[in-house]
Specification:
Strand content: 25-35%
Largest sheet: 7 strands, mixed
Shape: globular
Helix content: 25-40%
Order of helices and strands: EEEHHEEEEEHHEHEHEHEHEHEHEHE
Low-confidence stretches: none
Mean pLDDT: 91
CATH topology of the largest domain: Quinone Oxidoreductase, Chain A, domain 1
Radius of gyration: 19 Å
Distance between the termini: 29 Å
Number of domains: 2
Length: 323
């Protein structure tokens, strides 16, 4: 048996429970990961609240925890990409329902959903980078093809994806403006932002014009799209009904349309992220670390917002400190 965080109904963080479930075993092409750390992502909050019922349905229990870092406990037949005992990071499939997900002592995933963890990183720090790092890569290298010297606006810059996007945009040679709270100016400047504007006091017209806009908020998309330079590109990861409508309406604007995507980390993307970590281009930004038994508090902190960085769930002491 093992401990796992699950929900038995949709709602606020109080619906989360940590109980005993049967430890899974890997099938062909699968890996059993002993999880040392997971995190709270927007995806996890959406699953918990019921906003993703189209995927998760109404049959319970449902596991939470999109990403994880830990070690390979066992492999199924046909797996030779990782070996037992090896530190790995990865995600469960974001578009599938899971009775047990990353916030558990063990999780089974397909072998192509994990990769060796960066050398010298603790599991908590590694888990903090998986989804934000891959999302920032997809936004800046994939969707918008950021070039050195271009101006970049990051909305929601203090969040998990935002802090990763600020760092990666800076590493790629972008001139970064961050929209966040004024009190986060020092932290975001240290991560590579040239300017930090308070989103509560800055209208889209006040912000200026940009070659690339990375949005993690999902509001006022049409107004921000109008702040693109000729040939500018905009991408959003903050999806809602109005956001989807704005994305569809922007299709007539060619290169200046609003792009979106669903980050789905696989081994190749995780390996690319490892290279960036090794080069010092991106580091994890963590606000709080909670034990698995207090995952409800981690979700409350996430829902409350206003912090710089991520809310982490530590599940075991294995790999809990940098080596």
């Amino acid at each position: 048996m093992m401990k796992a965080a699950q929900i038995f109904s949709y709602g606020a963080p109080d619906v989360l429970t940590v109980g005993e479930v049967e430890r899974p075993e890997p099938g062909p092409g699968q890996v059993l990961v002993g999880v040392a750390a997971s995190s709270v992502n927007g995806h996890d909050a959406l699953v918990r609240s019921g906003a993703m019922k189209i995927v998760s349905g109404r049959r319970f229990p449902i596991g939470v925890g999109l990403d994880f870092a830990g070690f390979v406990a066992a492999v199924g037949t046909g797996v030779d990409s990782v070996r037992p005992g090896e530190p790995v990071w990865g995600t469960v499939h974001p578009r599938e329902k899971h009775a047990v997900a990353g916030a558990a002592e063990f999780v089974v995933v397909a072998a192509d959903r994990v990769a060796p963890m960066p050398d010298g990183m603790s599991a908590v720090r590694a888990a903090a980078l998986v989804v934000p790092g891959i999302t920032a890569l997809a936004a800046l290298r994939g969707a918008t093809h950021l070039q050195a010297g271009e101006s970049v606006l990051v909305r929601g810059a203090a969040g998990g994806v935002g802090t990763a996007a600020v760092q990666l945009a800076h590493a790629l040679g972008g001139r970064v403006t961050a929209l966040a709270r004024t009190r986060h100016t020092s932290a975001l400047t240290d991560l590579g932002a040239e300017r930090v504007l308070d989103y509560r006091e800055t209208t889209p017209d006040d912000a200026g014009t940009f070659d690339v806009i990375v949005d993690t908020v999902g509001t006022d998309l049409a107004r921000y799209r109008r702040r693109l330079t000729k040939g500018g590109r905009m991408v959003t990861v903050g999806l809602s009904g109005p956001a989807i409508a704005a994305i569809a309406a922007s299709a007539v604007f060619g290169s200046r349309r609003i792009r979106t995507f669903s980050a789905d980390p696989r081994t190749a993307q995780l390996t690319e992220l490892t290279e960036l970590v090794t080069a010092g281009a991106i580091v994890p930004v963590i606000d709080g670390v909670y034990p698995l038994t207090d995952i409800t508090a981690a979700h409350r902190a996430f829902d409350r917002g206003g912090a710089v960085g991520r809310q982490m769930v530590q599940i075991s002491e294995i790999g809990s400190t940098d080596r």
